[in-house]
Amino acid sequence: xxxxxxxxxxxxxxxxxxxxxxxxxxxxxxxxxxxxxxxxxxxxxxxxxxxxxxxxxxxxxxxxxxxxxxxxxxxxxxxxxxxxxxxxxxxxxxxxxxxxxxxxxxxxxxxxxxxxxxxxxxxxxxxxxxxxxxxxxxxxxxxxxxxxxxxxxxxxxxxxxxxxxxxxxxxxxxxxxxxxxxxxxxxxxxxxxxxxxxxxxxxxxxxxxxxxxxxxxxxxxxxxxxxxxxxxxxxxxxxxxxxxxxxxxxxxxxxxxxxxxxxxxxxxxxxxxxxxxxxxxxxxxxxxxxxxxxxxxxxxxxxxxxxxxxxxxxxxxxxxxxxxxxxxxxxxxxxxxxxxxxxxxxxxxxxxxxxxxxxxxxxxxxxxxxxxxxxxxxxxxxxxxxxxxxxxxxxxxxxxxxxxxxxxxxxxxxxxxxxxxxxxxxxxxxxxxxxxxxxxxxxxxxx
Length: 447
Prior knowledge:
The protein is α/β, with parallel strands linked by helices.
């Protein structure tokens, strides 16, 4: 069939899903899967997992593992990107700096705001290097990116390389399942049309058995607020309350993708300086693995144990299919069997009231001819008005990263809606200076 390279395979969360996903399609079982990571110790278990899976089920799939990126990329038809540059230590470094200035724990720091921009400072250059290798070694391959900050990375790849690419997330799938749960109906009976930007896309249509489900959803929320305003302790990991997204839905009329914790960082309404009581009011809690570097390390260790248990079990590793889109895309491109997913692509007239050329998340049709993003037209004006300020941050941040320009980085963070609601210009300047100091060991050449 061809070669699928998974770059960053040692980060077991995605690789342990994507490999069974790929093998769930008979048409993909004669492929070569090349697993690559710079950490040989972390690469070993996932390679053993993949080989055991193939052997147990008698597939013809060839499994390669290497710490040599160029070897993995050579001749690849599909490149799946799941990298984590420099590990989690620098992430926690800047989380502490942001928390000090905001006087409150920051929102998730890999997508938006100062944290998202500084995450991009480490990841965009590394991914552009991978794309340069691809231009030499596999110029016709599709890049399927799972690494955050999604919009900034995809914008950089679109604007500074010739590589075909799409950014993939699972927020649409998970939110659709949650909405089905709120409605009390089977998830397979729900259909949707979703568009916007990554982690802030809108369910422009939500249907149950072909009929508009929004009136029923409003009724459910009004009559039974307990379905969204309390954490779900029965889930592992625990699912926090969803108050932020419901408040946004009530105010603006459309339900947004991603979690309430994420959404609280895109807008200025829920996180106020020196007001920790708002976090309790809106149910915004840190997950235990984000609270500290040690907590994150423990969480990663728990994920590793799951892979190790499957390697050492006497029972067959099941062929299962997750909600991730990656294998679905590859299958449709290979087989010609059409599918529809939501992907992050360049805004070439797709969403007409967001900036031309920015990264948008829209429905995409996939077949043997390629990936075909769907025309959406204008978003509802209130939704576009919420998206556009974050687009402005993303676009300027990418320029700052590529040009290694500290001033553009400062200006991008200054434009962030939440930062602007909390800090003055001088306070933001001080924040950015301290973030560069905290990340000095990881960021080189900025002027």
